[in-house]
Amino acid sequence: MIPAAFEYVRAESAGEAISLIGQHGDEAKFLAGGHSLLPLMKLRLAQPSVLVDIGRVRDLSYIRDAGDHIAIGALTRHMDVETSALLKQHVPLLAHAAGHVGDPQVRHRGTMGGTIAHADPASDLPATTLALGATYVAQGPNGTREIAAADFYQGFLTSALAPDEMLTEVRVPKMQGAGWSFQKFNRRAQDWAIVGVAAWRRNGSAGVALVNMGSTPIMANAVSAALAGGASVADAAQLAADDAEPQSDLNASIEYRTHLAKVLVRRALEEASN
Amino acid sequence: MTVTDDRPAGVLGSRLLRREDPALLTGEAKYTNDLHLPGALHLALVRSPHAHARIVSIDLSAAKAAAGVVAAYTGAELAGLWAAPMPCAWPVTADMKNPAHFPVATTKVAYVGDAVAVVLATSETAARDAVELVDVRYDKLPAVIDLEDALSDRVVIHDELGTNKSYKWDLKIEGHEGAIDQAFAAAAHTVKERYVQQRLLPMAMEPRAVAAVPQPFGGDMTLYSATQVPHILKVMTALTLGIPEHQMRVVCPAVGGGFGSKLNVYAEELLCVALARKHKLPVRWNEERGENAHATIHGRGQIQDMELAADADGRITAVRVRILGDMGAYLQLVTPGIPLLGAFLYAGVYDIPLYDFSCTSVFTTMTPTDAYRGAGRPEATYAIERAVDALADKMGIDPMELRKRNFIRKEQFPYTAMTGLVYDSGDHLAAAQMAAGLADYDGVRARQATQNVPGAKKRLGIGQASYFEMCGLAPSRVLASLNYSAGGWEAATVRVLPTNKIQVVTGTSPHGQGHETSWSMIVADKLGVSPDDVDVLHSDTAIAPLGLDTYGSRSLPVGGVAIAIACDKVIDKAKKIAAHQLEANEDDLEFAGGTFSVKGTPERSMPLAAIAFEAFTAHNLPDGLEPNLEAHVTYDPPNFSWPFGTHICTVEIDVETGQVEVLQYVAVDDCGNQVNPLIVEGQVHGGVIQGLAQALFEEAVYDTEGNLKNASLAEYLVPAASDVPGLTLGHTITPSPTNQLGVKGIGEAGTIGAAPAVINAVVDALSGLGVTSVPMPASPHNVWKAIQAAQNGASK
Ligand SMILES: Cc1cc2nc3c(=O)[nH]c(=O)nc-3n(C[C@H](O)[C@H](O)[C@H](O)COP(=O)(O)OP(=O)(O)OC[C@H]3O[C@@H](n4cnc5c(N)ncnc54)[C@H](O)[C@@H]3O)c2cc1C
Questions:
Q1: Distance from CA of A56 to the nearest CA of B (A)
Q2: Contacts with A250 (C-beta within 8 Å, 6 or more apart), sequence order
Q3: Which residues of B touch A259 (CB under 8 A)?
Q4: Measured in angstroms, how far is the CA atom of residue A114 from the centroid of ligand 1?
């Protein structure tokens, strides 16, 4: 549980962080809440030679009403997302999902930017923001760009971010009164989901994303398409895993995961309809 | 029957807060890892990544050249340091096979985590970094992780033994053998079941930690260790390293839990001492969590074949048990004895006339197993309690009713079991009835009838386990009959200081149990002082040179009783002084509230405080009486202690996902008189959750290559507070007739009752779907598979 040796530098702003990362090259990593990165380092599964600590870039910790969407700064802690009145009003699904990340300690340390950038298919907020059609803002040496959540997740723990790009903001469209549900199936309250579902429904449309059903968070597009075509919730839910490539692990075989996805999507759609 | 009955209500039996807690809760308590040892060398071990392999070569050169590294050694280079192999204190049979086991392997490794080399460096980080630089070449051999595969000798792990079978131990009772076959032939009902006790990781919150410190003068060695057994460790270190025993001192600073995993003599302890002697410097080692999962002993690991025969009324007439035990790669301190601690309990709480037990134990290429909370007794209780439910199911009668027909009745105590052991006292019916009332057993059964209809999404289940525990280890002669190499006595000294403060020295070694609080209460009650005036010294072999430590729910019924007897001796001596001073006849004196007075003339009195001072000055003592007021006692109990009880668990199962929710958990435990009910409840809480964890959450999972797949707390699912139900506790009180306090052990009881109660509830919930068994842990996946299998079976 002792990481390999590394250097530590603290950045006071996004610009400084990006230039520090640029200086140190490939072996450098941003350190936000550290709740994904440090465990990997302690197991020596990650051995960055420099950590650029962005944890104190305070002006990136905010939740703002930006008209059609809510803008969340990358350094906003899960606990602030969970308890935000603004989010509870306009994006209740995200606030609720944030309350299901790990335990209170994790939620006080982990950040929005960190969980998105880490791109863990088993994490709750990547899939939730994906379901909500979020846009992520990345800042690099040559300025900022916007990346649609649907284009962001490229493989296991791999995102569209360049090594010298920093995620600065997450933009989540307002839900406009859509029904929603977040289903997290796990064995202990603090654990990652064995399977999770984030879903919303409004009029004829629906968005359903799955947690831990492949190497990235994924949309269950077959489900929303079937619903749009008039299928019943029960029938649509049968298509939950059509686009998934679940893995087996100690908690679930592929078959069981697939079954869980169908059950949880059905429950999510039922709850989102009420 | 007991002294407490005719004593005024006082400190004994009160809910005194634990004096240990402020330091533990504020982080003030000092653990082995907190010791400040300037100049100490840090030990790190190079561990095998393979379950079974020959060591081809070890290259230490890069590690030796690394910054901060002082030395590095292979197992062969250390071989000269060992006077004897690592100890196994329980050769259960004369022909038991026990491979020579040294702290560092020399030619072969036999489990993932087996040490092959060590590094000493000036810091822990330098030592751990250098481990990564050691280049070890292995010649891989096949892993053996299945017990029946091990027994087949397809792959023999220890070449020199020629077999993987360590021993076969039979508890055959004269005259029973033929009779048992007859009983099964004549039975109206029989059940034959196979149960698997999965491997468990003890996961004490504090991993192990060791520091060996050579004393500046005279060649003595102090070994600090996060251990449950300082006294055993002292003897064994002396023997294994060839150190004169009087030059070894073992100290346990605060110890953060053990659950049996620190009841051992470990390679790292021996290495730290041996290397501290060699380098003439302190040597310390701290275990990492992942290392703890591999290098600290595991618990359970048994396949149990269980058979019951019963007559037409469901009276059980015979029990036949065949155990296949998983020893792991080597025999640690008491590895082979663990199944024997359960061997006598497969008849449970029932009056069963015929008994046949046999255990075969095998080596595998996994971490050695050893004592884990309950050690043998949870396994036994699980098997009999699951089998009784299976019998009830077969007969179509309520399992509670079947139990009532078979309970040993209150009036049969003391009850001599067919195994020859005498169960001291008990009232199983009373405990079961109290538990049934608290759990609303009949109400749940009624709700089941309406809820568990075909197609129900959530099914309700209720399960019971009634247990009898053999604990309070133990009468030394009984241990001898089981070939155990040590006794079961405990030592105590009670010393009244000149100012009437009391010093107690105990041979028990608490690591979370609250002995300081409980022992002070016993003394306070006996001597009429405040518990605050009693200091309890322990866990340092220089201060408490005699003792047999803490395990097997023994500390109160053996060590606590020893203290009570020592108090009696102090009172006897004080009485002589009081009689002398008051010029009264000893027989005319009575002792109450800390004061001796002459019966009928209470104004002629003398408080213990005054007597203590007289004893100290020795100016005016009776002729021939030694100065000072203290007594030393070594107490060997006449019998085990036999706590018992009934646990009832109510669950609801999500049939679609297989998830089990515990709706209610009732535990009624009878540990005789309770010194401190708060501490009793704490032990029951922890114990029940640990048993429930085996039933629902925990399992050390190995792949076919012999790799432990869940060696971290992220993957090994120790439940947290939010994952477990609130507990409803009840107690009946049936004092033990064999000790003056009337007490029985309570440390392991919760664990023993919990697993079968939970699994019986799970199977009960699903019985309408055709499910007759669910493996432990009853994870959602396992439960779902059981439902699928039953439904597929039904549709065929
Ligand atoms: C015990 C425990 C339980 C947990 N349970 C859950 C759970 O149930 N559900 C869940 O979703 N998560 C869970 N987590 C993970 C937690 O949510 C993490 O905090 C989160 O995933 C990562 O956020 P962080 O700020 O800690 O990121 P860090 O660990 O600091 O960083 C993670 C990665 O992202 C990079 N990074 C961080 N910020 C940025 C940025 N702004 N721009 C570019 N790259 C960046 C880092 O370089 C690193 O590679 C758990 C963690 C722990 C320790």
A1: 28
A2: B701, B709, B710, B715
A3: 784
A4: 5
- Which residues of chain B make contact with A185, given a CB cutoff of 8 A? 657, 659, 780
Domain boundaries, chain A: 7-53, 61-173, 179-273
Nearest CA in chain A to B710: A250
How far away, in angstroms, is A121 Cα from ligand 1 center? 12
Which atom of ligand 1 is nearest the CA belonging to A113? 41
Which helix (H) or strand (E) segment is B561 a member of?
A: helix B561-582
If you average pLDDT over every residue of chain B, what do you get?
96
Encode pLDDT of B169-193 as tens digits: 999 888 888 899 999 999 999 999 9
What local confidence, expressed as pLDDT, does residue B189 receive? 98
Distance between CA A15 and CA B704 in Å, rounded? Answer: 51
Name chain A contacts of B707, Cβ cutoff 8 Å.
Answer: none
Q: pLDDT of B370-411, one tens digit each?
A: 999 999 999 999 999 999 999 999 999 999 999 999 999 999
Query: Whose CA is closest to B594, among B611, B581, B577, B607?
Result: B607
Candidate from B657, B720, B785 with C-beta closest to A189: B720
* Residue B348 near residue B468 (C-beta atoms within 8 A): yes
- Ligand 1 is surrounded, with C-beta below 6 A, by A 29-37, 39, 74, 101-102, 106, 109-111, 113-115, 117-118, 123-125, 161, 166-167, 190-192
pLDDT band for position B2 (50/70/90)?
A: very low
In angstroms, what separates the C-alpha of A263 from chain B's closest C-alpha?
7
Which parts of chain A have pLDDT scores under 50? Answer: none
State the closest ligand 1 atom to the C-alpha of A126, by its place in the atom list counted from 1.
11
What's the whole-model pTM score? 0.96
Question: What average pLDDT does this structure show over B439-461?
Answer: 97
Superfamily of structural domain A179-273: CO dehydrogenase flavoprotein, C-terminal domain (3.30.390.50)
Structure-token pair, residue B674: 């309770």
CATH number for A61-173: choose from 3.40.630.30, 3.30.465.10, 3.40.50.300, 3.80.10.10.
Answer: 3.30.465.10
Distance of alpha carbon B666 from alpha carbon B228, whole angstroms = 30
Residues in chain A: 274
Whole-angstrom distance, CA of residue B176 vs CA of residue A124: 61
CATH 3.40.50.970 fits B32-141+207-255+262-295, yes or no: no
Nearest CA in chain A to B788: A256
Nearest chain B CA: its distance from A71 CA (Å) = 32
In the prediction, which pLDDT does B588 show? 96
Distance of alpha carbon A233 from alpha carbon A250, whole angstroms? 30
**Residue B6 CA to ligand 1 centre (angstroms):** 63
Distance, CA of B441 to CA of B462 (rounded, Å): 8
Cβ distance B706 to B50 under 8 Å? yes
pLDDT at B8 over 80: no
Q: Tell me the pLDDT tens digit for each residue of B599-647.
A: 999 899 999 999 999 999 999 999 999 999 999 999 999 999 999 999 9
Q: In this structure, which residue's CA is closest to atom 25 in ligand 1?
A: A33
% residues pLDDT > 70 (chain B):
98
All residues at 6 or more sequence positions from A103 whose CB lies less than 8 Å from its CB, including other chains? A189, A190, B720, B722
Q: How confident is the model at residue B795, as a pLDDT?
A: 58
ipTM for the predicted complex: 0.96
Q: What percent of chain B has pLDDT over 90?
A: 96
> Which option is the CATH number for A7-53: 3.90.1150.10, 2.40.128.270, 3.30.390.50, 3.30.43.10?
3.30.43.10
B68 touches A: beta carbon within 8 Å: no
Question: Burial level of A140, CB count in 10 A (0-12/13-18/19+)?
Answer: middle
Sign of CA dihedral A14, A16, A19, A21: negative
